[in-house]
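User: For a benchmark we're assembling, each entry needs the component sequences followed by a predicted structure for the full assembly. Here are entry 17's components. Please fill in the structure.
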Amino acid sequence: MTSIRLLGRWVINSVLRFGRATMFLMATLVGVFLILRRFRLIVQQVFAVGVLTVLIIVVSGLFVGMVLGLQGYNTLVDFGAESSLGLVVALSLTRELGPVLTALLFAGRAGSALTAEIGLMKATSQLAGMEMMAVDPIERVMAPRFLAGFIAMPLLAAMFTAIGVLGGYLIGVGMLSVDSGVYWTSMQEGVDVYDDIFNGVIKSVVFGFVVTWIAVFEGYDAAPTSEGVSRATTRTVVIASLAVLGLDFILTSLMFSEV
Amino acid sequence: MSRNAIELWVGLFVVAGLAALAMLALRVGNLSTVNVTDAYKVTASFQNVGGLNIKAPVTMAGVKIGRVSNIQIDREDYSAIVELSIDRRYNNIPTDTSAAVLTSGLLGAQYVGLEPGGEDAHLKQGDRIEITQSAVVLEQLIGQMLFSKAQGDQ
Amino acid sequence: MSQVDTAHDSLIEIRDVGFSFGDRKIYDRLEMTIPRGKVTAIMGPSGCGKSTLLNFIGGRLKPDNGDIRVNDISVPSLTRRDLYALRKQMGMMFQNSALLTDLNVFENVAFPIREHTELPDELVKNLVLSKLQMVGLRGARHLMPAELSGGMTRRVALARAIALDPMLVMYDEPFTGLDPISLGVIVKLIREVNDALHMTSVVVTHDVAEGCSIADYVYLLGQGSVIGQGTPEEMSGTKSPEVRQFMGGLPDGPVAYHYPARDYKEDLFQDWPDD
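Assistant: Structure for entry 17:
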């Protein structure tokens, strides 16, 4: 009996949360339009959200590309198809690994930082202070951060994919016996700009929107205590990662399923 | 960090991101190899296209000159109408050229191969390739082989 | 604004306000009048909802019933836009100061000026330095909030609260957790700022001595409504047992020492588990 009641409470709380998050998103989107004329604020946040995430993205992209090169080669060479290595690496990266892994890393690095920062501003009543100074914190604090995440995520995903392709090249051509020209041409034969690359970019845009939304909302909705902030930070990483993986499945089945 | 340094870093970040996108489009993707807008379209009808897909390559003498842009069924004779987009650079293909659905390797992807004829007139937008050869369907081939073997045994 | 309007010598009028947080009743038929140009202290035990009162005046919370009028404007019925316009004439100093941690002292004080005016940088600088001079921290303008002591943080918050020369400044527990010197400085500053800039000050505190030393008028809250009011002298001479307990800091009195409980003996012989 209690477990059913707990389930009910969980459902009700989830629906309430989602409602708050949606209203928050609407207010933030209005704020984004108002904040556009204050370019400096956005630049500052792109720095915090984007530039500071580049390092982990580049390093991860390089290693993922290198692993793909190694694994792909070992599998393909059994079928005498190692000439398709470039294609395998590029397709995996543009369609899936680039957007998804970037979004997961982004949630862990930039998303958790956003939640913690906003949560702390709430816990130290900086947000309330702004309200009392007749400054809307949603417009002044949330909107530029949201916009910055939305801008930074696709750029980071593109970097991840590009570096990954180079990593595969490094292994396939540099260490193993794939010809440099074959690596690139097999890629260009098989990777379509619209079907693969453009759809990958769309994915990263969607992920950027959702991850930043979750991160900013969790910070804004956090209980104003140190425990509340740490819980909100954890929740950002968990919910954002699950949302990315779930959305990836939905987007993939919409984009790549052949009717 | 000073405001100028932040602005510089953000500028570099955006440039790097856009450069990565450009590299994906030009170096990884096929934006640089086939320009889809600068092509003319001809059709060919096949009894069976096998596993031919849209976007499969169209080749002549082994050189890629275009791609399959559409595949549909003829409402009257139930054959497959395949639309081929051919790069404008190859605008001197004779009208009596034949088309065949071929397979790269034993089990590889299927593509359309063109075999040039001897006419002086050239294919234009909207023309139809009359001489075609259908895909070889492996199951049919095996069926025929078994059938002829059975007949031979009698 | 600086001229005291003799026709309306009250700035804030709180009429018949009721409010509860869930099941917990905070206010019941609260009535209060805050005089213009004076320092008014609102005192009461911790958790009696003193800060909630400031949130009503600032429009961050709405009472369940009743009305709050600031400068003859009804705050709960204001639209968002008008509320924000009214807040520009209010300054507030939070208990934990609420300085923006990523801005230095100068930028913190400049923040409301930059957000609400298009003044040239030179003028902003003059304004900010004059406020910092007033609180004695002109030399600390390049420090970050994390580098300040508790007392200095409060002084910066005070400078920021008066940056736009508001008609009303609200102080939420300005005296808690300060060393005696910083405490003296804050007490002096609240009085000075109020008189020099012809503002109205509302100080919410549970420190009896400091509250009485700066206030022109004192309200004592308890059990959801006003249990005593008057000048500090009237308050210390009162006969009311509730007021005497609070002013004198007596451990037992009308506010009982024990949290409401069953009879002790009965409780001891009760079998576990409880209830």
